[in-house]
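#structure-requests
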Amino acid sequence: MMRRKLLAGALLLLVSGAVNAGAQTLDGDWQGTLSNGPVELRLVLHVAADGQGFKASLDSPDQGAKGIPVASVRFADSTLAFEVPSIMGSYSGKANAGGTTITGTWMQLGMSAPLVLTKFMPGAAARRVPKPSDIDGDWEGTLEAGASLRIVMHIATFDDGMTATMDSPDQNAFGLPVTTIARDGTKLRFTMKQLGGEFSGALDAGLTTVDGTWSQLGNSLPLALKRVKR
């Protein structure tokens, strides 16, 4: 059951979409967040005019997915609608007068969720300066949920804080960003909103193992992460 829930958290909201508002203001990048209970999944939509309307692609950063193709776009009376037959999904939303926001609903597999897409104005990317901590590196563990599910954590620290990504090799998922990660002495905690999950554990004296608990969608399992020497 836990394995199925983890799979569902990782895969249920894998979506693609498109925007064609028939106006130059739609060219560019749009971002929004799908929420389903404790699960949150960021989306970034890239739109460009192609002479016959618009072409688009979608990124799902929390799933490590980029360039998902978009098709079947319609726009009339400020209302955007599109379907994605490959995943049985659809979206309908209304653009505001300023062309900066599209407010609508994503539907998939009989479920619906509000999705607001906001025009993203990129700024200069800040340069991150590495500031390694004593727990930076790779950590591996296994969730036993009827079947074994390997987990690999990659921790890195910069001048503006600690970051991490997670791999789930048995699900062929790599580089999933950790939403938040924090260390307080021997305590380590991280959350992954795209999975509705969180981990809380304690480091041993030698900083070689973190013994803790993985909690997700009302279920909890023990999870020990061990440092991997590369």
